[in-house]
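[Archive record]
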Amino acid sequence: MRKTNKIFHLAIPCKELDETVEFYEKLGCNLARRYDDRVTFDFFGDQVVCHLSPDHIDEKPTMYPRHYGITFLEKDNYNESLKKAIDEKLPFFTEPMVRFKGKQEEHMTFFLIDPSNNLLEFKYYHDPSMAY
């Protein structure tokens, strides 16, 4: 279970800083710091650092095994993020869907793709015990 006195940190590659900042700010993430070679965001309470590395971009990303994102514990937060993605015309990698329908681990999910082909998943489990 998450402890409130800890922040998860993730570092990912990006091919260009300005478009990266634009994407993550449209998503609702606050820019915390910017340097010549990276940008750091408050990503829903955690830290995502996008390092400028245009030679390390996945040209043909797939959902598995590499993606990251948010598991919302409240359905309204999931719906708000989905609405924001639609309103901001952010690029979807997969449209919203329900996975594992009828099972305890059933959840709502959608994937976005950032300007550097990093995949972001947003999901909400109907049964909160399945979040971990």
